[in-house]
């Protein structure tokens, strides 16, 4: 008899959507290299937290980005055999990373199921256009933990393109009426300046969408580098979600127990973003 | 610059659908063990044949069946945490086998893309009910080789169930208006009796659907074992396909060059089934 780490939830429960950043679960500097230690630790944290319903979305890190870039997958189909093979390689790299994540979750007795965005999503000019989302609702009702990821997808205008994990995260949170979004990255959250170069930089522990928009403008005007590798883009994706009242908590998933505490709703260092 | 092993075909070309039997690509007697040598050899044969458009469907063999059976996945969802975890394990086992197949194909410069049946198909009482098939048509038009497989799927009546590679094969051949179906198994084709126990058994090299139905009845009445491990069930799945005029060629994929010859349309030992 197996342990029963999660219980089958009522149909009405609102899911929590957890993003595991590519920078946390892969080794950025090494192509196609997973951070197996981090993946195992995070799987244990997710298992201990016993959060349900839960959807996991992960990024590509050193699996998805280098190959996708080399073949300009995001720019669309160019009717070129090399690029078609490059698309296949990129998709397969993401399948490979996803397999490592799902394997680790299953080893912790989490009923994680790989849902391939490539297989069930079509974008239009880069935005999610068709998705079998009832599928996900049913999976959650039955007690599964669907695991999705940024992926190569077919696009009705471009032929194909890249769907970012962040767009997917925001889309799922909206459509599944998520309770909260937790984003695990490799820094502590949003800072007022780049903490690596500016000693006056401080972590923003709580911010409203309105404040954030003003901050973005300031950051834009000052041409400050986006220290979190596209965090502003991520937040732009999350604007409709925040508008709907779904809070976003950014935590450092590279540090032990942060994701666990975030899942449990315990006090944790990070940045909480609310509608305001 | 890469080689160009396949060319992007006209949109109108009718695809060939190739089934790689689970008994060929896995080691039947060893759970979760792939026959890597066979997978590599078959990938080379598929690459050399340069068949396009091509769809590959593979079975589960020792990856899918044992786990699925242990948790009675085919019988449907029982609202039981152990079974939910068993479903997750079964799906992941199939993802694992599929990854080995797609990796091998990509290594031979075939733009193979894993299409997850679990992610894009819903069955109703065990029969395919919803599938994003336009997806596959677009993939073929762009020059990809979609690779699908027997998988765990959601079912609108049973909650979930198992979709056999054979049902999927027949469905795809019908919907994609296939030119021909090639089924690679671990025997030479259909026999008049069990060749292992009956020395009078002879290989049937050509048979019509009508003859086959009569033979089936005879075999049924004589209670002869189905030597090919469910071949009669496979053929029942293929009846509508044969009725539509799509020929089925059964060859021994465990023997080198048989699948290659079948793909090229060369003379090969096997059983050709036609409408008649």
Give a quick set of tags describing it.
homodimer; 276 residues; alpha/beta; Carbamate kinase; eight-stranded mixed sheet; four-stranded mixed sheet; 10 helices; 12 strands
Can you walk through the features of this model?
The structure is a homodimer of 276-residue chains. Helices cover 41% and strands 20% of the residues of chain A. Chain A has ten helices and twelve strands. The first copy, chain A, has helices spanning 22-25, 36-49, 61-70, 81-107, 117-120, 133-142, 165-175, 209-221, 231-243, 258-264; strands at residues 16-20, 54-58, 112-114, 121-124, 127-131, 145-149, 151-155, 159-163, 180-185, 206-208, 247-252, 271-274. In chain A, helix 2 (36-49) runs parallel beside helix 10 and helix 7 (165-175) runs parallel beside helix 9 (231-243). Chain A starts with 15 loop residues before the first strand and ends with a strand. The relative contact order of chain A is 0.16.
Secondary structure tally: strands of chain A: 12
What is the CATH architecture annotation of chain A?
3-Layer(aba) Sandwich
Query: How many structurally independent domains of chain A?
Result: 1
- Per CATH, the class of chain A reads Alpha Beta
Mean pLDDT of chain A: 89
Shape of chain A: globular
- Beta strand % of chain A: 15-25%
End-to-end separation of chain A in angstroms reads 47 Å
Portion in helices of chain A: 40-55%
Oligomer: homodimer
The main pleated sheet of chain A reads as:
8 strands, mixed
- Strands across the major sheet of chain A, in which order? 3-6-2-1-9-11-12-10
Order of helices and strands of chain A: EHHEHHEHEEHEEEHEEHHEHE
CATH superfamily of chain A: Acetylglutamate kinase-like
- Low-confidence sequence ranges of chain A: 1-11, 220-229
Gyration radius of chain A, to the nearest Å?
Answer: 18 Å
Enter the CATH topology name of chain A.
Carbamate kinase
Q: Number of helical segments of chain A?
A: 10
Biggest interface and residues each? A-B, 48 and 48 residues
Structural class of chain A: alpha/beta
